[in-house]
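Lecture notes, unit on binding sites. The following record was shown on slide 14. It pairs a sequence with 2'-O-acetyl adenosine-5-diphosphoribose.
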Amino acid sequence: MTEIEATESIPSTSTQGDIESIADNIKNGHISRIVVLTGAGISTSAGIPDFRSPTTGLYDKLAPLKLPYPEAIFHISYFSHSPEPFYAIARARHPGNLKPTISHAFLALLAKKGLLHYLFTQNIDGLEEDAGIPTDKVLWAHGNWKSQHCWKCKTEYPDDLMKRAIHNGEVPYCLKAECGGAIKPNVVFFGQSLPKEFDEKEKVVGQGDLMLVMGTSLKVAPCSTLPRLANKGVPRLLINMEKAGDFGNRKEDVCMLGPCDDGVRRLADLLGWRDELETLWKDAVDAKEDVLKFQDGPSLDECIAKMAAQMDARLGISKGHKNMLENHLSDKFAQMMSKGPSCQ
Ligand code: OAD
């Protein structure tokens, strides 16, 4: 997985199709195979920050940790020697603490109506399953938290120990004493390959009669390339706070700029599905509330502040140590000078 430079040129007037005709074509059956790509923006209303939004995104929030660069926290080469920042924030981003949004529920409704051809998600929060989207319709392109292994020797690690480590904000280490590698959930880090199904599944994009892209900046390859695989003439709908990728370059593109949850509500209204959508969402949230009661934990900001304080304390100790050595040396030097030059 790699981050890409924002080089796409987006024309200023990009909304050339319209949402009403997309809704009409869903209603009259001309659109029946919807391929979806989602990103962090569909989960922000669940309380989980996205990555790149200025100020509110995770990468800006990580500033107090003074990482070499923000994405390092999810880079395999950084994690291999410094897994602490990842585990410091893991609890706040762990699926147990979250509940699905109405955007997730909308995708579940598409599936229920037999319209969801396939969903590619870059998210690892697992909220697709909580909303009731059938797992055989989803590719978790950036992996998930369901299993874990030692990054070094690849040995699997037990779920209960992993849960405990995440709960305590501690780094779990390989149980093989001679190894000592940190345990990594099976999520895809920068510098790692996507699941092997990705190459095979990306072909389904060409089978779709609507490409729906929600809540992603389209800045990370290879998922960012998927919208371009939609056949020419097939409408592409972006529901996002901002324009992304090459949306707007095709005449059949429609951009609904704003919160995903508002976008899916508007679409549901046009389709006459609004009540059904709200009910499906409420049921999914209620089912998750029962789990949440036992899993309240520190917020992301609290996790970051705690880790930053620990780092400052460590730095304080080493600064103190350095001062002590400097004082010791200058005392020695002063003593030596007070005795005058010596000849042997
Ligand atoms: P980004 O943070 O890059 O982009 C999120 C997009 O969603 C931005 O364009 C936001 O403007 C938009 N957005 C945020 N909240 C929204 C809302 N409520 N409604 C609509 N749009 C909203 O996140 P991704 O594109 O998912 O990888 O990032 C891709 C990958 O980069 C992630 O999977 C992650 C990251 O580094 C790893 O962690 C390894």
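Take-home: The chain has a mean pLDDT of 88.
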